[in-house]
Amino acid sequence: MVLLQAAVKIVTHDAAHVLQARETYRRVMASAAAPPHSSAPVGRATRALRRAHESTPGIERPVTSVSELVRRIDMLYAACFVVLSYMVGPRVSEILHLQAGCARRLDGNAAGAPVSVIVGSIFKRQPGYDGRPHEWVAPPVAVQAISVLEALSEPHRGLTGRLDLWLRRRRGNGAWEWHEVRPELLEIASAARVSHLLRRFGAALGLSHLDKPWRLTTHQGRKTFARFAALRDRSCLFALAQHLGHRERAQTDHGYVGSDYRLNQEIDAEILNQSVAAWEHMLAAPGLGGCAGAEIVAKRPRFRGSRMKQDLRSYARLLVDAGLVLGVCDWGYCVYREEHSACLGNATGPNPARREPSTCARCQNFVVSAQHRPYWLEQVRRSERLLNEPALPLQTLRIVRARMNEARGLLRALGSDTGEETDHA
Ligand code: SF4
Q1: Of the residues 171, 201, 221, 350, which has the fewest C-beta atoms closer than 10 A?
Q2: CA 202, 204, 205, 206 torsion: positive or negative?
Q3: Which residues, 6+ apart, have CB-to-CB distance to 94 below 8 Å?
Q4: Residue nearest to atom 8 of ligand 1 (CA)
Q5: 187 versus 237: which is more confidently predicted?
Q6: pLDDT tens column, 204-242
Q7: How crowded is residue 10: how many other Cβ atoms within 10 Å of its Cβ?
């Protein structure tokens, strides 16, 4: 968590300042007329960095020297790698061979929201598989990491006419990577170089395990990503195998998910936090749909006054501690009680093989709130489109109509004028 939080902060907050400092350095070095490798321009660059800092106070971690600039650029590369590896999950070579323009936006998903993907190639030494084009679904922060890499690599790409995001000057050149660089000195960073970078990044953050410095490796992010996704919901293994570019689902299952006590603990803690947040939302939402939603609205206590936020949170925590852990998915919340479970779940939770929107929609455990409206609106629209297909068999049309009515019923319970919303879509 500390690692990822730090990486996200660097990519989203610090990157602009570091990139600006690098431009200041390049500008000063380019205009300096001094014998090669003279230290005078470096001193001038340092003064320019300090002046730039003084003219823009309030920067949390300013870059005020050339050596600091070199270190921060390396940390920026490491942070981008961590974000891509832990939040998207490609192999190290797949990340290192990404190219400018690889982040793309696709049209809406099932819930109608646009989806971003990173487009690259599979790097796996298997005939007929290696080099195959691949798309990874990417969260906004991963798209931001790609933008940062595009900005970082821009001078080297301009010089070589190549598109590679990880073009770097060979090791040991410090700030000279950004000054007087020649195309033949540039190469895609190796996995060993990134490993070294990650170890420095971990040390800078003070990461440790069992009182020893934690040695970050290039493969940990991909494994952690897979375990987080699969341990929470093993029904997603097939989709996960596709996302990771595995040929077989079994590889995802055995090689990546395995059993990891500490990771399971972290996931459980995350599920509890998510449940508390969802209960807080349900206790305060003006309207809820679904059978359990109506029950909650009728029975929930009223929270008022200046301590309302704290009271809501304590009550939500109380419910979770009492065992009312919620299942959270795109289409709603599941207040799981085995005896009411329409998916025929057992004592440990819902049955993933039968858990799907239509089963949930008629389940006594199901709740929808305003944040799930886009999902159900899209269901109504999709059903309407299907009902206009004259070639569909009668039986299929009946099922589609039933699903459309289900979705409309949930939207109505949320106070949506579904007719108007879908008519004007
Ligand atoms: S059908 Fe859906 S809401 Fe009902 S128990 Fe299963 S997962 Fe929960």
Answers
A1: 171
A2: positive
A3: 120, 121, 122, 123, 134, 245
A4: 334
A5: 187
A6: 998 877 677 878 888 888 877 766 665 555 555 556 666
A7: 23
For residue 188 the two structure tokens come to 């895609």
Ligand 1 centre and the CA of 45: distance in Å? 62
Half-sphere exposure of 159 (CA within 13 A, CB side): 19
Note the pLDDT tens digit of each residue in 59-105.
888 898 999 999 999 999 999 999 999 988 888 999 999 999 999 98
Closest CA to 257 of 272, 273, 246, 269: 246
| Ligand 1 atom at minimal distance to the Cα of residue 351 | 6
Pocket lining for ligand 1, CB < 6 angstroms? 327, 334, 336, 341-343, 345, 350, 355, 359-360, 363, 365-366
Instruction: Residue 36: name the closest of 170, 184, 180, 173 by CA.
Output: 180
Q: Which atom from ligand 1 is nearest to the alpha carbon of 333?
A: 3
Q: Let me know: does 238 contact 202? Beta carbons within 8 Å.
A: no
**Domains in the chain: boundaries:** 2-101+146-218, 262-368, 375-423
Q: Which residues pair with 60 in a beta bridge?
A: none
Residue 88 is encoded by which pair of tokens? 């998207």
Cβ pair 243, 225 in contact under 8 A: no
Question: 289 CA to middle of ligand 1, Å?
Answer: 14
Q: Are 125 and 115 in contact (CB under 8 A)?
A: no
Nearest CA to ligand 1 atom 6: 343
Choosing from 346, 358, 360, 364 the residue with most ligand 1 atoms within 8 A of its CB, the one to mutate for a pocket test is: 360
Q: Among 331, 334, 367, 372, which residue has the most ligand 1 atoms within 8 Å of its CB, making it the best to mutate?
A: 334
Q: How far is the CA of 342 from the centre of ligand 1 (A)?
A: 6
Q: Kindly calculate the radius of gyration of the chain based on its CA atoms and give it in whole angstroms.
A: 26
Ligand 1 centroid to 354 CA: how many Å?
A: 9
Question: Is the full-model pTM beyond 0.70?
Answer: no
Residues with Cβ < 8 Å from 210, sequence gap 6 or more?
Answer: none
